[in-house]
Specification:
mainly beta; two-stranded antiparallel sheet; 4% helix; single chain; 48% strand; nine-stranded antiparallel β-sheet
Amino acid sequence: MTYEEYRGCENLVYAKITEDSTDNLTYGEVKELAGLGEVSKVTNTSSDTHYYDNNPAIVIMATGDDDLTLSTSAISDETVADLTGQVYDAATGMLIEGEREETYVAIGYITEKTNGEKVYVWRYKCMCEVPDVNSKTKDSSTDAQGQSLKIKSIATTHKFAKNKSRGAKGISVSGNKADVSAFFKQVTLPDAVTAKAA
């Protein structure tokens, strides 16, 4: 057995969903989001044990949404508007904060293991909270503040052959095995992932 840990993350990008239906799953342009400092993902699960003949006989498991927390550099107002369904006026550089349109995006990034293996990730259907902004007065220290982006990730309505005709929340792909040359040029879907040429 080889022991590895995760150490490193980079290349945070996103793309807005334009359609998620039984027939189609389409996205807009892939765009840079911000500098990535840390990624945390928690999958919400629940279980219940059913008893028969005085013994635990069946465990029912349910997998829910994923909670992602991304520690980032400051996110531009235009990107915040894109992620959260708010309005950005490019002519004045103004973010208008208020009622949100329902907006889903795909989130992509790379993590790395201590052996140097890069893992390429797409999360397919995410809804982002409005990120908090913390600022304080300049002083003699070197303190500065980035942002924390909280995300709910759910499965797509669209189904994939490689996922036994089910929707998918995302993929994690080994850069040592898969062809990742165009992984972030568009949102790479499970059925489009192929092995590296021999």
